[in-house]
Amino acid sequence: MTYEQQSEFEKSLNIRAMTTKQIWSYATGMLAICMIFAPGRYKLAIPMIVIGGAATSTAFVWHSHNKSYKTLLPNQVQQMEERLGNLETIVGRDDLEVNLKLKQLEEKI
């Protein structure tokens, strides 16, 4: 299976795996720095915070894929297109009115 033929789920799985790798590589570096430079009384607290943060970030990354598969229903797409059309009409009308008022003011001057 080539990379282009992968399904959306496999692509999101690869992205999540790469993100998890990045999170834990940064966490490992932070742990090393904490063990070297942290004051004596914080040698245990700071690494626990780093591990907790990395674990929480990993959990969010792996649970976020459920939200990405939610799609809009066709009637919601139609409603959004209608709203966008209404907004374009309103903005276009306001621009026209502003231009007319500017021309009237220029004529008075």
Description:
- The protein is mainly alpha-helical.
- The protein has helices at residues 8-37, 45-63, 65-68, 74-108.
- α1 (8-37) packs antiparallel against α2.
- Helices cover 81% and strands 0% of the residues.
- The protein is elongated and about 80 Å long.
Question: What structural class do you assign from the helix and strand content?
Answer: mainly alpha
Uncertain ranges: none
Report mean pLDDT, rounded to a whole number.
79
Strand content: under 5%
What is this entry, summarized?
This protein is mainly alpha-helical.
Write the layout of secondary structure elements.
Layout (H helix, E strand, L loop, with lengths): L7 H30 L7 H19 L1 H4 L5 H35 L1
Helix pairs in contact: 1-2
Provide the descriptors you would attach to this structure in a database record.
single chain, 109 residues, mainly alpha, elongated
